[in-house]
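Example record for the data management plan.
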Amino acid sequence: MTGAARRQRDALLATARISEVQGLQWQQWSGPESGPRLLLLHGGFGSWNHWFANIESLRKQRELWTVDLPGLGRSAAIDASASPGDFSHWLLNSLQKLSLDQRPLHIAGFSFGAMVGIRLARQLGDCCTRFTAIGAAGWGELHVQVPLAPPPSPDTDWDAAAPVHKANLRALMFSPDAVIDELAVYLHSENLASARFNSRALSRTDDFIRLLPSLEAECLCVWGSEDATAGGDHALAARQVIIESAGGRFQRLPGVGHWAMYEAAEATNTLLLN
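Corresponding structural encoding:
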């Protein structure tokens, strides 16, 4: 049942240039040499494929980079006690080896990846011209920890595992009315099978809020109105006040859940490119 989804994933990855640098696996899609490079950081328990639905379109207009964060995807493991700062320092050293700091860079981070991304943007200084956070974690009491069913083990029969994955995707990643296709279920299951770092405790901290006022890059924070981690309209309004008070911009995507880049790929791409 996963054959078609696996072929889709493999076909897109085959168009990328893969680099292993200091234990991290990077994926590069060549694009126009003018304009800033775009670096996409995935969320917790994820990999580069959190951006699967966006890559084909974005690569036509930007030189595009993704990376598997430490302890996730095909990158090297990281200590279980690691902080977002440990992630960003590892990432910074690796991207400097790739000379990604030699041209203007636009960073976009999803969920836990936004916690890492905001630190990386601060470390890069003038090199990072723009930072976009989608469904950012690190909002302290405003962040909702969504209860999930225990995920199936990787060797569980697909017919038994798929309904559990789909139920968890519905609870955490998608809006109530979204269509969850087989590809999304496959990508999610693949990510869980390779995840060796649990970021949920870090997501509940106020790390993102504390760093926001000191960010020099242009900042856009995006949430789906149906994001299960966001806490509803009142909590989204509270976020907007904090973001705008820090000089950033706030954008709500109506009817969209947490995994906004997959559920609303076109709208997300428009925000990243404009």
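Summary line stored alongside the record: The longest helix spans residues 158-172.
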